[in-house]
Specification:
Layout lengths: L8 E5 L4 H12 L3 E6 L11 E6 L5 H15 L4 E4 L14 H11 L1 H17 L3 E8 L10 H21 L4 E8 L12 H6 L9 H12 L10 E4 L29 E7 L11
Helix pairs in contact: 1-7, 2-4, 3-5
Length: 280
């Protein structure tokens, strides 16, 4: 289905890292013009990009609207939003600090709300159909120890998507969640690989581009009758019984795909046709 996004403008929030980069590259390969918003400026080289500053964690409705307006001016009206920004709250239930919980929710749940509103308002104003996609985690579908804050924020985002799907359906706008399992990225350095694999029926770690292909389908006209869904991309991980324990090690920092507090970078890429593969 190459070219199924031809003529569409897609925004990928959290799109410069390994997983987000895979998503952005797949959307571009299917013909979309892609705008990447991420804190990790310079991690990926995108031909023809321009750079602007954007504070994700401290964003409000006004700044999110300005961001969408600047993308529209550079690439054209936005048709697709993929929100892949995360601040993973890795920590035990009894150890989660309120301030850290607030920061995780600000990025993982409040971020999709603000960006979804900004894109959604423009779609409604234009009378155009559109696609809002939230990339979530399988930790919001099954209990994964040491993911308290992340799992809570993910559940909030999933419920948000379902409510938005109902409200925006009359406008031809679909809203869906993609629940990612274990994918190849630097975060795997924090994981007990043997324990993780034992809970994945597919018997392997997924590739970022596999997640990207699902996002591409949801971004396309072919998905017009799919809305309010939570689609696992996890090799069957979410429907299996936990083998016990947690694959996440106790000493684990922020994964690369996280959006940290402070300034983020908007990179607008005019990309058509095939694009480079996602970072490993």
């Amino acid at each position: 289905m190459s070219g199924m996004l031809e003529g569409k403008v897609a925004v990928v929030v959290g799109g410069a890292g390994e997983i987000g980069g895979g998503i952005a590259s797949v959307l571009a390969a299917h013909g979309a013009r892609v705008a990447v918003v991420d804190a990790a400026a310079g991690d990926r080289d995108v031909v023809g990009h321009v750079t602007r500053r954007f504070d994700v964690e401290q964003a409000d409705s006004h700044s999110a609207g300005e961001l969408v307006a600047s993308i529209t001016e550079e690439l054209g009206p936005v048709d697709v939003l993929v929100h892949n920004a995360h601040r993973r709250g890795v920590g035990d239930f009894l150890a989660v600090e309120p301030d850290e919980l607030r920061r995780v929710i600000a990025v993982d749940a409040r971020g999709p709300l603000l960006m979804g509103q900004a894109v959604g308002r423009e779609l409604v104003r234009r009378g155009a159909p559109g696609r809002l996609i939230i990339v979530n985690s399988a930790a919001s579908l099954r209990a994964v120890p040491r993911t308290t804050a992340h799992a809570l924020a993910g559940a909030m985002a999933a419920t948000l998507a379902q409510v938005a799907a109902v409200e925006l359906a009359p406008h031809g706008i679909t809203v869906n969640v993609v629940a990612a399992g274990w994918l190849r990225s630097s975060f795997l350095d924090c994981v007990d690989g043997e324990l993780a694999l034992s809970a994945i029926p597919a018997g392997r770690i997924g590739e970022p581009e596999e997640l990207g292909e699902v996002c591409a389908f949801l971004a396309s006209d072919a998905s017009g009758y799919v809305s309010g869904a939570v689609i696992p991309v996890d090799g069957g991980y979410a429907v299996t019984k936990s083998p016990g324990g947690t694959p996440i090690r106790s000493s684990c920092g922020e994964p690369r795909d996280s959006i940290e507090s402070g300034a983020a970078t908007l990179r607008l890429a005019r990309i058509s046709g095939a694009a480079e593969g996602g970072a490993r």
